Amino acid sequence: MFRKRTVMTSALALATVAATAGILASTSSGGSVAQRTIALVRGTDSGFYDDVQRGAETASAALGDRLVVRATDDTRSAIDALVAQHVDAIAVDPGERGSGSVLNGSSFDQARAAGIGTLWYRNPGNGTSIWVNLSSATEFAHALGDRLAAQMGGKGLYGIVPCRPANPIVQTWLRAVKAYMPARYPHMKRVAIVYGNDAGDAAETAMFAHFIKKHRRLRGLIVLCPTEAFVVPHAITQARQVGKVFASGNGGDHAYAPVDPQLAKYVRSGAEELVSAGDPVKLGYLTVWAADHLASGQTFAPGQYDVGGPVGTVSDYAANHELRLGQTLTITKDNIDQYAGG
């Protein structure tokens, strides 16, 4: 019934596009500088990367930069070609398998030696290049708790739904939620932690439906794993508890536009609200802004930066060379039409 979902977000993207602007861009002081060329290396699927690119294009237009987009699964070759092209900065999503460790030892070293600014976005690389991140694990976990509390009016009985097997980040989220909820919402009481099995099948749905019926005073579930974000609202629906039992779910890649049709149906029915690590359009904007910052010869130091545009103020964290958007994305009845397809 359900396809298996991974916990960590993976990217979706579109074809190669180059957005061009004029030769000169005006500075805030009224002078002119040579137009900078910012390169964005992205994957070849559609969805998440499409939105990243849209935000990147908006930022490059606002900054007067020329944006070169390379949609490819061969990141190393793309970087080598961009170094030969003498772009001013290169932004790369290294993916979840840690390709950053390979790139840092070769292509990115060559880029830095050529005076080209380098940065990672979405997933962290290794080394000293700045990492433009969506949100922290703690911010994400807290957002899941906040969305359930909003639906429950800040009171009542709730459960937490992690899963096995799972990426270690799930346990990080679980610890954060367990610590946060009693401190932030003293009138909410946790009754259980119930593990999903990441199967997404009828048996798992039946298990959660039975759990809901067994705990008759239960009013909500915080769902930490993407597979269970499909299963739990289905179980709530099967148990005929929509509007009585609520869920806040980790939509994973399926919480980005376009939202998976099944999840969109659950959101519209009131069976679940979705949380994702952040808006990819804003991530694209911030990535190009950071690349322009590096291309202008500046560096990053711990503290806050006013990015403007749709992003506003962000923070730099020295320990991870991290420039963090720090804004999770929630999808509810009120905004589902903005993110649902067709």
Characterise the protein shown here:
The protein has 342 residues and is α/β, with parallel strands linked by helices. The chain has eleven helices and 17 strands. It has helices spanning 48-63, 75-85, 100-104, 107-113, 137-152, 169-184, 202-214, 226-238, 261-269, 280-295, 336-339, and strands at residues 18-19, 24-26, 32-34, 37-42, 66-71, 89-92, 117-121, 130-133, 156-161, 188-193, 218-223, 246-250, 273-276, 303-308, 312-317, 322-324, 329-331. A nine-stranded mixed sheet has the order 1-5-4-6-7-8-16-15-14, sandwiched between helices. A six-stranded mixed sheet has the order 10-9-11-12-13-17, with helices on both faces. The two termini are 23 Å apart.
Fold blueprint:
Blueprint: E1 18-19, E2 24-26, E3 32-34, E4 37-42, H1 48-63, E5 66-71, H2 75-85, E6 89-92, H3 100-104, H4 107-113, E7 117-121, E8 130-133, H5 137-152, E9 156-161, H6 169-184, E10 188-193, H7 202-214, E11 218-223, H8 226-238, E12 246-250, H9 261-269, E13 273-276, H10 280-295, E14 303-308, E15 312-317, E16 322-324, E17 329-331, H11 336-339
Helix pairs in contact: 1-10, 2-4, 5-6, 7-8
